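Format notes (please read before filing issues)

Several people have asked whether sequences and structure tokens are stored in separate files. They are not. Every record keeps both together, in the order shown below: the sequence lines, then the token lines. Line labels are part of the format and must not be stripped during preprocessing.
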Amino acid sequence: MEAVIRAEHVSKKFRLYFDRPLTLKERIVRGGKGDYKEFYALKDVSFEIKKGSTVGLIGQNGSGKSTMLKIINRTMFPDAGKVTIDGKVASLIELGAGFHPELSGRENIYTKATIFGITKEEIEKRIPDIIRFSELEEFIDNPIRTYSSGMYARLAFAVAIHVDADILLVDEILGVGDLNFQAKCANKIYDMKKQGTTILVVTHDMGTIDRLCDYGIWLDHGEKLDEGEPRYIQNRYLQFMAGEQDTRKKLEEDAQIKPEEKADAADGDRIAPDQITHLGEHFGTGDMLITSVEVLDEKGVDKRSFQSGENVRIVVNYRTQADVEQLRVNIGLEIRSKSGVYVYGINTRRDGSEALSVKKMGTLEVLLEKLALTDGEYTIGIAFGDQEETISYDHYHELTNIKVFSGIAALGVVNLAHKFLLDGKEIERKEAW
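Then the structure lines:
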């Protein structure tokens, strides 16, 4: 199948000014120049989009997605490389671009449709459908300067999807209007997909990528990091973003630890559980205190995102404030989904262990072998208590949280090993990404 959009080594850079001259005197003194640095919004990006395909362009803010769409739409031009387009393009990038505020909604429909190359006769035939879709019948002959931003966007959307475009460019505009209108917009785009329209959509909604797209392209800081099937790209992008969040979260957690907490964890004075605040809400007698937690992967890296099937090691440092000769301990683990579903709970007593002795200061390690969870966010709780499970020394329901990626479409929370056999023959399936 031939490519209808071909980007070849596209680069686009901008100037970021630090101190632009504003007054005439400043312009004369500085020669009209200000301090700036150049940065690449796009750098040597290449890809092809096949006719009739729906491609998702993903990446965090500032990755160059919208810049690429504007270059494809010819409202911006690259500094290097080129983009080749084969077909009529309709864009839902900057809704309302080209509208005149003093003209009525009806007059702006004629103007906008003409820009798309539609003849006056064709516009006459389509205008009832455009107005009906926009749901602006009552206001269509009013100047659009009187429109709300939602009305403005609905009219622009209605025009763009009624011009019989070969290629549709969509940039984060499926939030137009109320919920009913959003659903109508999404259904219209699905219809265009079924009719063979080539669609390039920019979105942060991974559900849209999964449901709508046949292919994904991932940009980051102006460069193409990867491309491929939607589930593969989605999984890689989410893992990357989770890693970014891990780094930020760890820095924030470290910043939240008060100096007195660090000192308290090291000195010999007894402290109350509510003095340990940087790990979140907890309760107990204070005979033991959890002072820190790490969640490590197989390489010993502290992180909060894992692939289903990985080995995960939870490392908890504790401090004992009671007599270690007298204290006997039962250790508990609990895992819950983000929605609060109790996924798993166990303790050393239920494992058949005797009450445990502890040190004045020590470390607990919990190894979760071949993590059998599906995609989602989970909280991990740790508890130190007595053997009878009646007293908590220190108990966190949410000591830390993790994200799990499986790359499969299973529902629920547990990723069970399974096979399907039809008429005695095992059905082949793809491995998780």
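For reference, the curators noted about this record: Residues 230-256 form the longest helix (27 residues). The radius of gyration is 29 Å.
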